[in-house]
Specification:
mainly alpha; binds nickel (II) ion; binds adenosine-5'-diphosphate; globular
């Protein structure tokens, strides 16, 4: 595909996504903007297909099961219809949709696997944006949006074994660190992702240590 056409497709897709994003501040345009920056940075180091990576990042949160009665295939469907309307080839559409289907975290004990380097990169970038200073902000923003407690020492974390269980959990936000955020460092797919995750992981760890210390009045 000519470079100029790729550029045009990306531009149109960006406008489409900006007009469609739904839900909380953790999933707004700025999340896509940040994930794109991280993903393209990793993609250049890992010599991946930048067009596929950028297209998948733009579309990865275009429709969320949380706002569609738990329909986990909604994101890929919306993306496919959009890409079809642009006349994009089947191979590209299948690749992008497969990434969108597999990108989400589905629970502590649920394996998700990405087949291609482009998918691995998008997943790493999406996860990096759930970590570190931004990740902490997103977690409490999500907790507020769902009316959750900040913390409750009587509710211990649960290591979910299915996506259903994970989705239904209504626990406090500190539990989310144990149920997801602290696990991400060891699930990075790419070497570049792993190295970026280190600092973000340490920052969250220090943050929660400090939070729990203050909770006890120390
Ligand atoms: P992903 O984009 O990996 O599929 P989600 O859509 O589940 O993740 O979450 C989007 C953001 O909201 C992430 O930063 C995530 O950590 C945060 N989040 C999701 N579930 C919770 C929760 N139960 N408590 C606090 N934050 C959450
Ligand atoms: Ni995302």
């Amino acid at each position: 595909m000519p470079e100029l056409l790729k550029k045009e497709i990306l531009k149109k897709t960006e406008e489409f996504v900006k007009g469609r994003l739904e839900g909380d501040s953790g999933h707004d345009w700025w999340h896509i903007h940040r994930v794109r920056n991280i993903a393209l940075h990793i993609a250049k180091k890992e010599q991946a297909d930048l067009f596929i990576v950028e297209l998948a990042v733009l579309l990865h949160d275009v429709a969320d099961h949380k706002f569609h009665d738990g329909d986990e295939t909604i994101g890929a469907k919306v993306a496919r219809d959009w890409l079809l309307s642009l006349g994009i080839d089947q191979k590209t559409i299948l690749h992008v949709c497969q990434i969108i289907k597999n990108v989400s975290f589905k629970g502590a004990n649920v394996e998700t696997s990405m087949q291609t380097i482009e998918g691995k990169i998008v997943q790493d970038a999406d996860r990096l944006d759930a970590m570190g200073a931004i990740g902490i902000a997103r977690a409490f923003s999500y907790g507020g949006y769902r009316n959750r407690e900040l913390y409750n020492p009587n509710q211990k974390p649960t290591m979910h074994s299915s996506f259903d269980e994970y989705k239904k959990d209504e626990g406090h936000t500190i539990n989310h660190f144990y149920e997801k955020l602290f696990l991400l460092k060891n699930r990075m797919n790419t070497a570049t992702g792993k190295s970026l995750a280190e600092e973000r992981h340490q920052f969250m760890q220090d943050y929660v240590d400090c939070f729990l210390k203050e909770w006890d009045g120390k």
